[in-house]
Design brief:
Elements: E1 7-12, H1 19-24, E2 28-32, H2 36-40, E3 50-54, H3 61-65, H4 69-76, E4 81-86, H5 95-111, E5 115-119, H6 124-133, E6 139-142, H7 148-156, E7 160-163, E8 182-184, H8 205-215, H9 219-237, H10 245-252
Parallel strand pairs: 1-2, 2-3, 3-4, 4-5, 5-6, 6-7, 7-8
Helix pairs in contact: 4-5, 8-9
Length: about 260
């Protein structure tokens, strides 16, 4: 089996980036946005290996204060991936306000299933409480570092977990997560800032190496496993055919 390109399910990319730069990454990337307005700048792009996501970042006061549920719902009809969304325990946005926005987003996605990349820093319990309240397929907990108990509960809820290079110095949480629920990310430019060499979306080599060692796989086997995990997630949500031909070609060759 041929080895697929690198996969990065959570990175931040400038909306006005030249498409040639994205193609030069030689990786498949889920590119997060922070607001409906930012997503509107990329909604009509057709980048071959970059899937743009619709977000409302919990750390941004102005974005949360002006959140419009109807506008988000309408934009979600165009998006296959929703992110970055979630809750943040250190945000200046009051937690009750964050929860209200997050609930409206989950309600919108309940009506039109999508893949979700969820921020949970300092709010792990609150995130799981909301996912109990509105159960959904397709949740990826981005940069998750919750307690053992909460991690076990997230696994029971069917969540997936995406890991950036910054998490590779401590793999304690990985022991609670099945290999079939793990995905790679860079969270560029934050989660890869200490990575050696050039830092860019798709730069998940360190994640592949460390997780391959943990799970007793080769790095090529680990990358194939990541892609199989993503395919399963997309199939469970029912949106695999929303992705373009370059993505489908990789899925078709996984076996």
């Amino acid at each position: 089996m041929r080895v697929p390109p690198p996969l990065d399910v959570h990175a931040h990319v400038a909306p006005d980036i030249d498409g040639r730069e994205l193609r030069a990454l030689d990786a498949h990337v889920f590119a997060m946005t922070r607001s409906v307005a930012e997503y509107s700048l990329v909604a009509d792009r057709h980048d071959v290996r970059t899937q743009w996501a619709l977000g409302t970042h919990p750390g941004l006061v102005r974005i949360n204060k002006s959140f419009d549920a109807e506008a988000f719902k309408q934009a979600a009809s165009q998006a296959t991936v929703i992110g970055e969304i979630g809750l943040d325990g250190s945000s200046r946005v009051p937690m009750p306000d964050q929860v209200q926005v997050f609930r409206r987003i989950l309600e919108a996605v309940q009506e039109q299933p999508r893949v979700l990349s969820v921020h949970s820093a300092g709010a792990h319990f609150h995130i799981l409480r909301e996912l109990h309240r509105i159960p959904l397929e397709g949740v990826i907990l981005h940069w998750w570092n919750g307690s053992d108990e909460l991690t076990d509960e997230a696994v029971r809820l069917g969540c997936y977990f995406s890991m950036p290079p910054a998490m590779m110095s401590s793999l304690d949480v990985i022991g609670r997560i099945p290999v079939t629920r793990i995905l790679p990310e860079t969270d560029h430019p934050s989660g890869d800032r200490r990575t050696r060499g050039r830092k860019r979306p798709g730069g998940v080599a360190e994640v592949e190496k460390r997780l391959a060692q943990h799970y007793g796989l080769t790095e090529s086997e680990m990358r194939i496993q990541f892609w199989r995990n993503l395919r399963t997630l997309l199939d469970d949500v029912g949106v695999r055919d929303h992705l373009g031909a370059a993505w489908q070609s990789v899925f078709d060759h996984l076996g």
